Amino acid sequence: MGLEAFFFYIFSIAAVASAILVIIARNPVHAVLFLILAFFNAAGLFVLLGAEFLAMLLVIVYVGAVAVLFLFVVMMLDVDFAELRAGFIKNAGLGAIVGGIVMLELIMVLGFQSYSSQIIGNPAAPAPLVTDNVTNTEALGRILYTKYIFFFQVAGLILLVAMIGAIVLTLRHKEGVRRQSIAVQVARTPETAMEIIKVAPGQSVFPKNEGPAE
Amino acid sequence: MPEELQIYAPLLPEIILALGAMALLMYGVFRPETESEAETVGWLAILVMIAAAITIVWYGNGTVRLFEGAFVDDAFARFMKLLTLGGGAVALMLSFDDFRNLRIMKFEYPVLVLLSTVGMMLMISAGDLIALYVGLELSSLALYVIAAYRRDSVKASEAGLKYFVLGALSSGMLLYGSSLIYGFAGSTNFQVIANAAKGAEVATNLWLIFGLVFLMVGLAFKVSAVPFHMWTPDVYEGSATPVTTFFATAPKVAAMALLVRVTVGAFPAIAMQWQQIITFIAIASMLLGAFAAIGQTNIKRLMAYSSIANVGFALVGLAANSAEGTQAVLVYMAIYVVMTLGVFACILSMRRADQAVEEIEELAGLARNNLPMAFALMILMFALAGIPPLVGFFGKYFVFMAAVKAGLYPLAVVGVLASVVGAYYYLRIIKVMFFDDSKEKFEPVRFKAGAVIAAAALIMIFGVIWLGPFTDYAMAAAQSFTFVK
Q1: N or C: which end of chain A has fewer CB within 10 A?
Q2: Is residue A113 less than 8 Å (CB to CB) from chain B?
Q3: ipTM of the complex in this document
Q4: Does B397 touch chain A (CB under 8 A)?
Q5: Angstroms from B206 CA to nearest CA on chain A
Q6: d(C-alpha B77, C-alpha B82), whole Å
Q7: Are residues A107 and A142 in the same domain?
Q8: β-strand B355-356 against B64-66: which pairing, if any?
């Protein structure tokens, strides 16, 4: 068994085990942490495949952003997981039957069929050879901005919609909130900030309409 | 236009819509936050849609494939895009008055509708699994947001959340199916998949069929065909009525176009397999739509079940797997959009004391209070029920004829029976309007809604005159595909 195969099994077993633990962990925070572990192992598998850029992307995007966001949501929202589980157990029997049937079918189809020879004949975008001295990042960049520019642009539009949607659904302008406006503060001069009042003997310093509360 | 960019001319409508949406977003952000500014953005959005429609008619010619087949512009795509743009623009126009009433008149709505329409047009033109997915997500994501657009209403939030969760699930199914298909064919391109499926033996085909089934599940969810229809009544009822109007028209057309493109475009070689699926969901949708609508008291829920049934009827045409069948789908969807816009304009006019009422009972005695509206709604209901000589009848006629020609007699028989059952609840509305004791008057019908109601009713009555040229146009569009028996 070569070193590569050794690491492959380590990463795969750890990935599958942590994926199972995501589902069965009682504490939701632990579940998210196991999810992060699963992502790390998947990144390891990508490195073994020679796709180091995807591996880094997985760590940065999924671990750095998505999983941390999950963690925040789990910790901030007061979700009663015991209650959710109760509903789950009620329907578990039916779900297990349907899931089992689909699983069996999948095993029948994917386990005993070899895929078409066509896939070897026409890969969508062949990976560059190591001898070409092209890095992963460069190879992806070459097709992402040329061959796949259409998908890339539409993906950009999807992100725009997500941004607008988040703002539309959550932003509320509250009336009567005093916000700090640094520009206004900086622009103040002694003339606008101060008022010099000559107080005649026997008079109060309050402006006319704002007498002291009685 | 520089010569290198000439080849991208077929993409011009989408570019216009996308850039228009971004420009309007900027306009909306930098102008004061008032209702009249929001309405200006709305009218400008409609202008952008009209401009896109003009470029479709102007530049559209023959069949063009861009980006290695990911974007297909053909007569079929142009037909469906014009229909989507028309439905979307009218639904947008109908939203202004109601949103003012609900105090949610904001500039983001037209922008989201525009972006969603871009997604739908990309769906219609999809020639590649990735293009299919990104187009679908672009349109759906905007739809999830506008479902919950009336965010202070619990029901609307529920509708948005339900739509989002179920939509995400169906996207997952669709992606899983796509990955299996890619694994089989080694390409995401529809033409390559079609070629790969042709040569493969039945045994290796199993893999492909498995992928196809998952893909169909995702798409059936988007057209709300039974058994993936559960979200429809709740989303239709919960969303603000103008949003429901949009849901019932443009996205339905786009999703149906996508279904045609995937089945006929990418899997002609295994037509037998997907015909079975389409036949089943068509029968289930027609029956469930007909029977479940009987017990409804809320007219928006009733229209939801009606839309499920209508999708079933349109799918009958697709199940035929022939040029006539696809032509019938096109004609049916066009007529469906007109009828639905008319009915929803009527629902938007059901207002008392500035409050929208949605119960069917509230229509009681409408004939005595507002005869023109009652008459128009009667015409639309007769058209939905499929009673000749209204145009609605011909939609069903073409669909069933295509099924009979393809030898799908059971499907046609079930379809006719389902439309008889469906006629019951459409006629019940007419009975309530004309024969029940009159209730308090509605507020006067507003101009925009009135114009749409009148136009829809007139098209239903006199549309027969243009039916010949129109069906020829649809036939030319249907012949963009090659059908394999």
Answers
A1: C
A2: yes
A3: 0.92
A4: no
A5: 6
A6: 9
A7: no
A8: unpaired
